[in-house]
Amino acid sequence: METASIFGISRHRMRTDGDGVTTLVTFTGCPLRCKYCLNPQCFKPEDSFPCYTPSELYDIVKKDNLYFLATGGGITFGGGEPALRGAFIREFRQLCGREWHLCMETSLNVPGDFLPPLVKDLDFFIVDIKDMDPEIYRAYTGKDNAKVLENLRMIATAGRADDCTIRIPLIPGYNTDEDRDRSIAALKELGFSKFDKFTYRYGKR
Prior knowledge:
The chain has a single domain (4-199), classed as Aldolase class I (TIM Barrel). The chain is 33% helix and 23% strand. It has 7 helices and 8 strands. An 8-stranded mixed beta sheet has the order 3-1-2-4-5-6-7-8.
């Protein structure tokens, strides 16, 4: 059975991580090194936090089953990078069934073979693409965005573009409103139509 190190289980969230009442489950581990990282604890050693099996996590979060069913809510997996925990999430889906809404907050910067099973098991994706421009992306995250573009195309080709909200941040010192407009135009060409525009308000780390 799969296990995963989890640094947060946040209950009774409303309209921040998907529809209805949600519980946010945050995994350790992330391929990016974003300058304004919101969850630096995800880089701590895995043994710094509790390790769970899908069954153990299900036993904890099922106490809110009535809230999930009544509001169309469920579990949102974040991190860190939850797409790296695909096998864990698939086992969890088998335990909770299809009645719970499962969402993932992701950068999509993972190998392409990680995504197809998750596209089948998850109901919704919240994708933080930082910026579609490769140079801006690399300057901010320290990584290349080729995998992000590949996975966006795969999601669109699978007919799941409408099941995604793409976060388009204005990142002080890294991109501009014009850069965001170009990112949105490129994403629309791929078939995406739901965008969340906001501004990072954190000092450089």
